[in-house]
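=== Structure Prediction Worksheet ===
Name of assembly: unnamed complex
Input type: mixed (protein and possibly other molecules)
Chain count: two
Listed entries:
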Amino acid sequence: MTSAPPVTSRLSWARLPRLVTWTVLTAIVLGPLYWITISAFKDREEILRTTPTLIPTHPTLDNFRQLFTATDYPSYLTNSFVIALSTAFCTVLVSFAAAYGLYRLRIPGGNKLAGAILVAYMIPGTLLLVPLYQAFAAVELIDTRNALVIVNVAFTAPFCTWLLRGFFFAIPRDIDEAAAVDGAGPVRMMLRIVLPLLAPGISTVAVYAFVFSWTEFVFASQLIVSDQLKTLPIGLSAIMGQYTVNWGLLMAGTVCTVIPAIVPFLFAGRYFVGGLTAGAVK
Amino acid sequence: MSSRNAVPGTGEVLPGTRAAGRPATAARRRRPWHTHLLGYGLVAPLVLLMLGVIGYPLLNTVLLSLQDQGVVGSSSNFVGLDNYTEAFGDGAFWAAIGRSGIWLAGNLLVQTLIAFGTALLIGRSGRWARASRTWVLIPWVIPTVAVAVIWQWLSNSNYGIVPKLAAAVGIDGLGSPFGDSALAMPALILMNSWHWFPLGAVVIFGALRTIPGEIYEAARVDGADAWRIFWRITFPLLQPVLFALGLVGSLWSFNIVDSIYLVTKGGPADATTTAPIFIYNKAFNQFQASDAAAVSVITIILLAAVAFFYIRVAKPKEDS
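=== Predicted Assembly ===
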């Protein structure tokens, strides 16, 4: 695996199986995305044509125009952004603090606590929907963005704390010694020395929390009632039910829902993969 | 915060910093408890949040299951174990548990196989392999609702590309599988696997990279073929990660509501009503909150049993 294969790219029969595998993988992963994207640019006649076209013959922006002018899509978009950014921010705060306490300060009982947190996190959220709804109703949080942020953070922070573990272990402890000799207090050490070194971990956690919140459906469907507070997944599923025949509009809505999830991920993707593998392995 | 000459004990209130470098735990044990205040304070928000959003509702699920509440949040009386007896006698519940089993096994099997293949592929050297480590994760970040729309569009019986491609290779009259009670479950498993396999692929890929190359070199020198190397070296060394992935993946898969609900709503004819869908419908469509709670508790106990089984039976030996 680590021994470098010959770099020369001679096209030989031996390479064929691998080439086929790559093609299949690429088609499976990116093919569906390509298909919905071009569908979003097709007009109503072309999208329903019996012989599908690989490239729109008359590319049009009508679907997008209709999406942003004739539906509540802009307000769904705003809600999703507000909730996802708040979730990402709070998750970073909560999980960095917890990971610092558990994996850096090494509080007594920290290992057991970390284990308990991970086990509690494994309890299926769906099964808690009914009592959670009641609890939120009791404190008048139903139909607020805050309710979703609280739930999202509660479900992302445990996993993110665990993700940060690998990043904490990668920072040498000698740094602490040196900083202590220089007279840095514990809080300053945490914020001025460890936090900057943990930037890749922080961005991994932020992206995870953002994506989780952006895609969350079950809680958003029950805890939000009013139309103007709905998030994108709920809005999109409403468009799906409401305009079953208007596939072009639905495709445009899907493309616009997918892009904000993919873009931050492509920027932080490298850290992200590193974070997931580090958290999983160490 | 504190300058060099501040509180005399400054060094002491840097929990972990001094003791950590030392191999002996004695130094850590000797320090008074209040030096860990900062540490506990930092962990507290997470613990409180989890107690509020996971712990308290869990306790309430148990209490609710002993009552007779209908619409979520309405008034109710204590009825003891009635809801449980009812749930145990409900054939629809056991059928849902059975479907959850199929859903779980199908997802684990399909996802692990694709994830393994992908991990081996993206683990190679070369520019394409390196770049793909990022884009291969894309399906995972796509919102479930978008995944649902995408696959419904692709498999639409009138306009979808999948039936057309199928017709092109000679399979005619393929309708949308999601509307067919025999095909809906396998189709959903494939759709969900498309959504989730990238996560497994990246985790397995990370684990593959931790295996030292020398081991492979040595095996190759000894004349082992690729197949032997995989079963004798790669697979055993990956076991801890596969174990974790299997445990976490099982619980995650089991828990999925949105993928199923968005595409089939548990239909056609209950063919895709897994346990969480059953609970969701009971609570929010049939307005039987207490029954839903009782079924939830039974389900959590079953899940705990599965997790326990995993840990006792499937746990890799070297970890104990």
